[in-house]
Amino acid sequence: MSPSLDKPDVWRFERNFPSVSASVVPFLDAIVAELEKREWNPSDVFAIRLALDEAVANAIEHGNRHDPEKKVQLCAEISGERILVSIQDEGPGFSFDSIRDPTLEENLEIPQGRGLFLIRNFMTRVWHNDRGNVIYMEKRPQNEAEELDGDKPLDP
Amino acid sequence: MGLSNAHTMTRYIGKAAVIDCLDAKLNEELTIQAWGEELTSIVANLPKDRDRVVVNFQNVKFMSSSALRVLITLNTKAKVQKAALFLCGICPNIMEVFKITKLDSIFKIRATENEAVNSLLK
Q1: Predicted structure pTM score
Q2: Which fold has domain B3-121?
């Protein structure tokens, strides 16, 4: 959790956590604190925190199946223009294309299945590795994101 | 005075049970589980003449999809026992989550506690 030596305006963070929800909360709070220090729009900060929470919950629940021996790796990089996050679990991988649409009428009253949907809606870009055990998320401040013209995702 | 638990406080206004959610953040697994158990217990044990429930979120500033899961289950249980369930006091950021997921179409949501209670008393 420190500024990069080569780029002083870039804040980088990398940590492994056991698959226990409470263990990651202080570090998600730290990411939010850094965004607030940089005066990101509160609704963007809310969106990022929500996406982080959902991705970590998916990694613990669906990836590592709550096995405390298995770790979740969280990497985050915040610069003046974006936040880039990757979250990796030790599970066999997940088919990100197999998610049902939770907004269809027949799915509205099914309790589960909204985490990835929210991540995709609240972040500027979301992608994953071929195996399906790493999710990458990028968000740019709202006014900058609106100016993007749909170019390819950036490498993490 | 109301009935106070770790994550909720329940008051009665006329025939309506008003449940205040006490946590500012509903995103940690154990907190959500305990909060959900409190809500479920309150709705399951409503007095016979008070089958109307308002869940007030005015203290809640952050909520994950796990909390939505609890509310959807609660809504289903309320329907089964023919109790009317309203939500109120939802902040704009969380309301956006309800809108994006279209859950605003299955829940009865009012801006304020007064509006929710008045809807139930009609």
Answers
A1: 0.89
A2: Transcription Regulator spoIIAA (3.30.750)
